[in-house]
């Protein structure tokens, strides 16, 4: 038996948990995993994880070593052994896991394991840029049990509301502060605990807090004293004030009181029956009234979140032509890092697709052994086989969204490898690949996302018109065509003069997204067919959006436009997508591999509508008679002026930025930013609060005028103030104004990469009134 891996035969209880039912008996906090239900109590798969087992860790052909893995009793940490004697950290948090994938889906497992081992392999995918953990079990049954067990625990973790995550996190920090494991807390341990949860207090205040809770005068906190300390620490005065205002029935909120709160504060159109259902949902003891704990549970659950719950599903009309939607799009999708020497990987495609990206880019070049490869040409970026990328796209295209995926091809290959590209797409993608126009007649407009569900479209050069494909009249075998704009730019040549030979087999796969050069709006109106689309470098698109916005909007009512970053962005940085969306551009391609404010805006834009990757443009950007100009706002249906009131009340459990320095405490402030048409762009921020990342309170009001709310995006940013250097990022949350719920709302905080920061959040009051 490995050290620290004793076999546990007892059943581990996962009690249903609400409020302050903490099992604080003598501080024996066997961290009870905070499940909404007791669905995992006595679960055999959970027991399997707790007992642990041996797995083979796969890094390369020569590095495949056995390691013992097990779930710790805190239900939040995985432990594994290591050959490195002095290695301090042999654990990782389940909260760091993004997903678990069964099979040989990763590049390492495909490269370094045999096909016959498919059912024994699985990968743990981490959030952010951390490398995958590729593992192999001794049998298919054991691999399945690892995957099923981990997925069950991860699902339960994701089902916790922010209040439950907060409680779980605080208890976990208490355990870590109890260095000697005696289930008691000394003054020194209390101070260590406060530093862990991001609060800096002076010795006098810490001693006063300790003495107040140490009712037994024993010099340690234990049992009920720890529970009292916890209640004192987690008391939220702002919640007390709001609850007290409406708790008019023997100190609690009756159904009528709840109804009054929902209508007055939350501006919701609800009935008494809805209020009763809310009480039933958040009061587990069948109480007819809502307690303060139940009220807090409501505020930290889905109904109390900043985003409209109805917008978490697909709620928009998906039957409009595809050019009437903003489409989540990636540039140089194959790259994991920069564009000079970074790695190319199928994993980059998988991650983009799982984030709802619906247009991915493939830069294809001639490869060895006649096999085309994908990489950033004429650089030191690594290469990945085209066929492997197509396999990854087939496997992951429709896991997060059922709506169409567009493959944007930047083709640099010879005729023979072009033919092989076509063969790979046809043979691997099968019936998902669109090879003929829909319907029985030659179309006159692009089909809708609904019509194209589950289909993959190819964007690229075509030898002839679409009606030739429809009439099966593709007689041209091969020919010379002008190169795609972005491909030509990569060679620093004029797109009109840069030519390539195009194979018929590849040309025939381009149906609704034929690449053409843009020669002006008038030329496009007269000569460009509905299925032809142009690509614009960011500088050209910005120029058109600034100087010819109305014409650009009208162009995009009929045609698709793709925008891509300048070639000079070798660090994979991003441009601002907002002006492009304001001009109606659909495929605004960004470097998904780079976490930044621009990607936050992109994630926010595509957050609603079930994160399906398609957002219906406002009506005034789809109606031919519209005179909308984002830079020159005249009267029209787009002008729906609102005064947006935002009160930043408080924050909860902000993460420590420097975990290696226990005394490093953040000095947080909140910045509220509005993005949209130029007239609406604005920001405001709170002052910073010294040495408190646990429960800082601001109670600060801001007011913004928003002229075109249908294009407005709101970003909440939390940063750590620093007098000597740039302020550090703590967390953010971005969403469209039209998807916001009003009233008192909790806001989850996300990393720059878009992952949820467990337990951290903001509490705000939001209201919009007609100006």
UniProtKB/TrEMBL annotation:
Which residues does the annotation flag as glycosylated? 216
For membrane topology, the record states: Peripheral membrane protein
Q: What is the protein name given in its UniProt record? A: Phosphoinositide phospholipase C
Cofactor comment = Binds 3 Ca(2+) ions per subunit. Two of the Ca(2+) ions are bound to the C2 domain.
Specify the C2 domain's residue ranges: 622-751
Q: Which amino acids does the record list as binding substrate?
A: 57-84, 459, 461, 535, 562
Could you name the active-site residues?
Answer: 331, 376
Q: Would I find Hydrolase among this entry's keywords?
A: yes
Any one of the GO CC terms: cytoplasm
Annotated binding of Ca(2+) 5, by residue: 720-722
**Organism of origin:** Astyanax mexicanus (Blind cave fish)
Domain of life of the source? Eukaryota
Q: Mind telling me which InterPro entries this protein's record contains?
A: C2_dom (IPR000008), C2_domain_sf (IPR035892), EF-hand-dom_pair (IPR011992), EF_Hand_1_Ca_BS (IPR018247), EF_hand_dom (IPR002048), PH-like_dom_sf (IPR011993), PH_domain (IPR001849), PI-PLC_fam (IPR001192)
Which biological processes are named by the entry's GO terms? intracellular signal transduction; lipid catabolic process
Q: What PROSITE patterns does its record include?
A: C2, EF_HAND_1, EF_HAND_2, PH_DOMAIN, PIPLC_X_DOMAIN, PIPLC_Y_DOMAIN
**Pfam families from the UniProt entry:** C2 (PF00168), EF-hand_like (PF09279), PH (PF00169), PI-PLC-X (PF00388), PI-PLC-Y (PF00387)
Per its UniProt entry, what is the enzyme's top EC class, as one word? hydrolase
